[in-house]
Amino acid sequence: MQIFPPSEFIFPNPIEADPDGQGLICIGADLSPSTLFEAYSNGLFPWFSENDPICWWSPEPRCIIRPQDYQPSKSLIRTMKKMDYKITVNQAFETVIRACSLPRSYADDTWISEEIIQAYCEMAAAGYGYSIEVWANDTVVGGLYGLNIGRGCFGESMFSTQTDVSKMAFYTLMLIGRENQLPWIDCQLVNDHLLSLGACTLSRHEYLKSLQDVIKQPPIDWKKYQDSVFSSKTIAQNARLIE
Length: 243
Hints:
The chain is α+β, with helices and mostly antiparallel strands. The protein has helices at residues 14-17, 33-41, 74-83, 93-101, 114-125, 165-179, 192-196, 204-214, 223-226, 232-238, and strands at 24-27, 45-46, 55-57, 62-65, 86-89, 129-136, 139-149, 152-160, 185-188, 200-202, 230-231. It holds the Pfam family Leu_Phe_trans.
């Protein structure tokens, strides 16, 4: 992994900067790799609309999911066995983030601007990004992406163009989390969809305390996953990636 020079920006302590617990910590800075590294290492992430100033957030409470607690639904397992999609890791990061940036049926716009896309692609190129892709023939039909610092795994967004394929990517991420003994995967903001997948919450204080421990631990070895093509059918039958 690339070692970034120190960021020129120093982020405020989220707890001291946001006594009312609204989550918006500060506004400004940039999206350079060193700034993103500094922000995520201190429990912040960017979230803002295109053409607006960069806003940095640390919500109270924080939404996380513990990989060891995740249980795929029976309907998902049936679909994975029936359709037998191909699943890869870190093979098409830019394809996934661009697909995640497209407007959804329930919204006309997206926060994933070209500026965000370029910034996170730089993080991925430096070894701090991950993506999981679900393929139908030669087309990516679903997936997710995020960042990884040490044992800290930060989920960003997911997409699907076919039924259940984003859930297949999510299940794959949960298996990677289990195999690497990740204490949690950061889901950032609470929503009903994440809660339906088994997510829960930590107080901001608990999250920040845990974060400082996990980011100092050895990083995930993504190489052992990204050289393989996994079968959704095999994953559904064995509930693991690495034999």
